[in-house]
Sequence to fold (359 residues):
Amino acid sequence: MLLRLDLQFFAGEKTEKATPKRKHDERKKGRVAKSQDVNTALLLLFSLIVMAIFGSFMKDNMLALYQHSFTEYIHWELNEKTLFQIFTEVAIELLKIVGPVFLIAIIAGFASNLMQIGFLFTTEPLKFDLKKIDPIQGAKRIFSLRAIVELLKSIFKIAVIGTITFSIIWMYKDDMLMVAFKNAESALQFFGQVTLVMGISAIIALMVLAVFDYAYQRYDFEKNIRMSKQDIKDEYKNIEGDPLIKSKIKEKQRQIAMRRMMSEIPNADVVITNPTHFAVAIKYDETEASAPYVIGKGVDHIAFKIREIAKANNVMTVENRPLARSLYASVEIGEVIPEEFYQAVAEILAYVYRMEKKV
Fold:
């Protein structure tokens, strides 16, 4: 009894790698190995590239908006119409400034996901599930090992990025104190330069962290979808079908094929026999095939049934032991006879046609 329980326990252990079908099913549900750090790193990288390329354009537009605000808007009388106009014009200018960054951020988001998991569209995660609002399940997720690992990772990332950011600010602290004595254009240029240095440093750190995080996410995902030996057996049964049901289906298919074959025997030109053990029904129809073909064959009991049906439908039976055996072994039902049998079969068909004319 104890031995059986031990075997059941080990059979239920998740020790086997997930099968391709299991991975495909998990993917359809939207469960894939993905690192958010890769997304963040690529998003920041693309955004900085855009800022580096369009930096002068963004600076010129910001200065133009600054000058326009303090030379034009400041003198306007505030009412409903002017407020709406100011809001509209400022919104358009801001959209011009940050638009390229927003656009590239969207592209970077798609690119990072495609790079990690390929194209995936599923509505499975959006389906309503009571387990998602179950407080017990929620508590388990909050205090799970994965949640603790994610918390420690977040703290470590904050510490690393915070240290890098603070170090760069500390490097430029003297220049920052002198910004108050610079004009707006020089101040914007300085802060743009500092932001670029901070961004590049943060990206390098995030890229390194992303490599380790992606490896961990893949490992954790593969671990979570592991299967037991029993799971693999059940999956195989579901794919291949229960052996008992499969055997019944095959038996049913054989019966249907047999009935179809027997229904064709009355259309045969001749049945070549062994005389008792083998029977092969031959038909020649120029519109169907270029040579005679087999429409039915059988051995022992089936051969007897073929001869019986042939006799009942006045189909001639010819005994030729070697030919019957050879045709049975070489030709499947519906196939044209091979060339080596042409002469022997032609002689039999000629004999049959002569006998039918005499009758």
Summary: Confidence is low (pLDDT under 50) at residues 1-11.
